[in-house]
């Protein structure tokens, strides 16, 4: 069973921000499912992305100033499809990253971000 986190969409495709949780209808909420074999991003009943762990997938925390960066992660589901997702807290974001990396590792996949891959030489 995957673990899920609720995220908020501010209206920009592929970008979710935590500071808009209030005064928005429930259909604006995105849900990130981190499962043993894949990651899925849903909004309501529609699926934005559903990808199995692969070598082209990237997942990392967003760096920058302020609290928003500490709560955000970058997910490239596959080449040409990427999202910046924000969580309610840095703790939730870190839990999602650690869990996804663990599940990917169990599938013999190393999930990393763009900077990490450059250092690894892949």
UniProtKB/TrEMBL annotation:
GO terms under biological process: actin filament organization; regulation of stomatal movement
> Where does the record place the Stomatal closure-related actin-binding protein PH domain?
23-116
Q: Which residues cross the membrane?
A: none
InterPro entries registered for this protein in UniProt: SCAB (IPR039640), SCAB-PH (IPR041144)
Query: Which GO molecular function entries does the Swiss-Prot or TrEMBL record give?
Result: actin binding
**Name this polypeptide is given:** Stomatal closure-related actin-binding protein PH domain-containing protein
Taxonomy of the source species: Eukaryota, Viridiplantae, Streptophyta, Embryophyta, Tracheophyta
């Amino acid at each position: 069973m995957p673990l899920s986190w609720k995220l908020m969409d501010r209206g920009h495709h592929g970008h979710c921000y935590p500071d808009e949780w209030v005064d928005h209808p429930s259909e604006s909420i995105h849900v990130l499912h981190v499962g043993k074999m894949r990651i899925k991003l849903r909004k309501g009943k529609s699926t934005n992305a559903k990808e199995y762990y692969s070598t082209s997938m990237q997942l990392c925390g967003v760096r920058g100033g302020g609290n928003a960066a500490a709560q955000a992660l970058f997910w490239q589901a596959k080449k040409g499809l990427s999202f910046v997702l924000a969580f309610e807290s840095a703790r939730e974001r870190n839990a999602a990253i650690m869990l996804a990396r663990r599940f990917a590792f169990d599938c013999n996949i190393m999930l990393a971000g763009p900077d990490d891959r450059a250092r690894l030489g892949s």
